[in-house]
Amino acid sequence: MYDGGKILIGIIIFVLFVTFPFYNNAGKVSAKPEPKLDTPVIQQLAEKKCVEPKEFMKAEHMQLLDDWRDSAIREGKRVYINSEGKEFRISLQNTCMNCHSNKKEFCDKCHNYVAVKPYCWTCHIEPKEKQL
To answer: What is the pTM for the complete model shown?
Structure first.
């Protein structure tokens, strides 16, 4: 090998460059966001419950919204019956965003934390938040 030293240096620089994001962020932890549930509509509810239990909604809310979309648009079904037998209108804007009107503090905080970009607002009108 005539250029073995140059190749070895190149490999070392490449490995350092590729692994930089890992060792640069080692030991840095961002705090897990806690969604704000202090909207006026939620405060007025006698029973502060979502369409499904909190644990289900944390893990499966996107699947639920996808199922709602399919039910409403493709099947024409507009009523959702939850695990407790209670009925809800299938609507992102009128059911979900009615209570969770603080999109920046509720939706965006968690979505930014996990680096996802939901496509809800390509079809739905993004809610306008009131300035307090």
So the answer is: 0.71
